[in-house]
Amino acid sequence: MHELAGESVLIAAGGRSILLQLADPQIGHGVADHSNFAQRPLDRLNGTLSYVYAIACGTPAEAAHATARVNRAHKPVQSDGAGGGPAYSAYTPQLQLWVAATLYDSAITMYELIYGRLDDDRADDIYREYAALGTALQVPPGLWPATRADFAAYWQRRLGELATDAATRSVARQLLHSPTGPLWLKLGMPFARFLTIGLLPAHVRDLFDLEWTPGAERRFRRTLRVIRAVYPALPERIRHWPKNHYLRSLRASMAAVG
């Protein structure tokens, strides 16, 4: 997991993972009620990357620090549904399982698009290790599907249960069309949006009213061919720069609190 999770190309699937999470009504309303993509578009991505790198690539102390930070952030994310939306709590194991599942599936999807299919033994090892993204929080080990075949069945069932409404589609629009953020984000957003939409399952695009044409699919396939030709040849220090950056920031945060 350490080797795979450190590849920065996986960040290209981050938007896919977030939209799949938003399409769960409880998670989507939790984000709508407690996040601010319009003013702080990078917060969820930064928090997720910091947590994933700490769990996958950090020391036990770094993983514990990142986990505690996520737990603190989750504390206010709850609703009894009295306002008309679904009841939810960010501590619900089944919701955390779905978040971890989207991170795993998006990472494997992106990795195999660039590097080719993993052999079964390595794929099994990575799958078992990815369970830690959920079990470090409130997901009991037995809730993570036991095998990749079990996960595939769980994944297909959950895809069929996804739904959106005006509130969650609005959050998705804020994510994909952020009016704020640093200049590099604004310049890169059209490309990030294109990759995100292309990586989504077709029916999830429909849930968010995201247009995708045969021409877009052809451009998407050409883009993947270019990435496959260029990215693996980059030096590891460049490919793993985001991982190292987030771990340095985490260590600085740990030092600041003693």
Automatic annotation (TrEMBL):
Tree of life domain: Bacteria
UniProt-recorded Gene Ontology molecular function terms: oxidoreductase activity
Pfam families xrefs: MPAB_Lcp_cat
Transmembrane segments: none
InterPro entries: MPAB/Lcp_cat_dom (IPR018713)
Signal sequence annotation: none
Protein name (record): DUF2236 domain-containing protein
Residues of the ER-bound oxygenase mpaB/mpaB'/Rubber oxygenase catalytic domain: 7-229
